[in-house]
Amino acid sequence: YIQLLGWPFQSFATLPNQVHRKTVKKGFTFTLIVAGESGLGKSTLINSLFLTDLYKDRKVLNAEERISRTVGIIKHTVGIEEKGVKLRLTIIDTPGFGDAVNNTESWRHIDDYIDQQFEQYFRDESGLNRRNIQDNRVHCCLYFISPFGHGLRPLDVDCMRALHEKVNIIPVLAKADSLTPAEVCRKKMKIREEIKQFGINIYQFPECDSDEDEDFKTQEQILKNSIPFAVIGSNVQVESKGRKFRGRVYPWGVVEVENPAHSDFLLLRNMLVRTHMQDLKDVTREIHYENYRAQCIQNMTRMVVLERKRRWSRNS
């Protein structure tokens, strides 16, 4: 029928190009929250991941100041552009987390912040003007685990269990250069066992379709086997054997941040920036936010029913 009208049957094939142009023009947003105790290299890793300096004005507190400080929420926003594609990256830092003597419910500030962003988005999309809604929902949480313990601490378990239904949690084994390769393997296995034991739902990489090529399937399996990502961060350029790279110099040798034999830094960066950023946003929208939205509507409906019952009882 379309051909009888003289229209080319392939005309709708340009739809992907139209969507691409419109989306690129609008730009993209991504919000990442980092959690973990002080001294695990969170700031250094974030600067290394996105090749920027978000913490140049940061003041390093002494032990007494850290103990007396409550958990804070600090928001850093930076615009990044690559090949004409614009990204508004927001990093949410949580200074003071895990620093107090009593850390009971120290994750509450993080939990409240995530809820506040869901609430604001729900209000915006329920309002009259929905054309320019700004998406500040948290799409990913990098949770830093100390390499100096025997797996997860009680604070780690409590925090991840409080957040796992609201945000995509990606566990990170910090300062991997403080461990031998054998210790890294054992600690990864221990952490995976405890995550399963305590019923913590971390971010699940999507299953590969049957028509995907073997290289893609292999890469996805490597990502799954690498959890938690054992990472090293450094913003310092070092030189060794005629090469310059970001790394750390020790008396026994040199550690390269982007060397896959030394850490999972490249795996984590490629996963966040190149291959799974959109999936993290999709899971946030389709699962975490939809659960919040359904709960809000259910509560609103319950309130309406209760109000009607009160009116009926007063009038009867």
Automatic annotation (TrEMBL):
<keyword id="KW-0342">GTP-binding</keyword>
<keyword id="KW-0131">Cell cycle</keyword>
<dbReference type="InterPro" id="IPR030379">
    <property type="entry name" value="G_SEPTIN_dom"/>
</dbReference>
<feature type="domain" description="Septin-type G">
    <location>
        <begin position="26"/>
        <end position="299"/>
    </location>
</feature>
<dbReference type="Pfam" id="PF00735">
    <property type="entry name" value="Septin"/>
</dbReference>
<comment type="similarity">
    <text>Belongs to the TRAFAC class TrmE-Era-EngA-EngB-Septin-like GTPase superfamily. Septin GTPase family.</text>
</comment>
<protein>
    <submittedName>
        <fullName>Septin 4a</fullName>
    </submittedName>
</protein>
<dbReference type="InterPro" id="IPR016491">
    <property type="entry name" value="Septin"/>
</dbReference>
<keyword id="KW-0132">Cell division</keyword>
<keyword id="KW-0547">Nucleotide-binding</keyword>
<dbReference type="GO" id="GO:0051301">
    <property type="term" value="P:cell division"/>
</dbReference>
<keyword id="KW-0963">Cytoplasm</keyword>
<dbReference type="GO" id="GO:0005525">
    <property type="term" value="F:GTP binding"/>
</dbReference>
<feature type="site" description="Important for dimerization">
    <location>
        <position position="148"/>
    </location>
</feature>
<dbReference type="GO" id="GO:0005737">
    <property type="term" value="C:cytoplasm"/>
</dbReference>
<dbReference type="InterPro" id="IPR027417">
    <property type="entry name" value="P-loop_NTPase"/>
</dbReference>
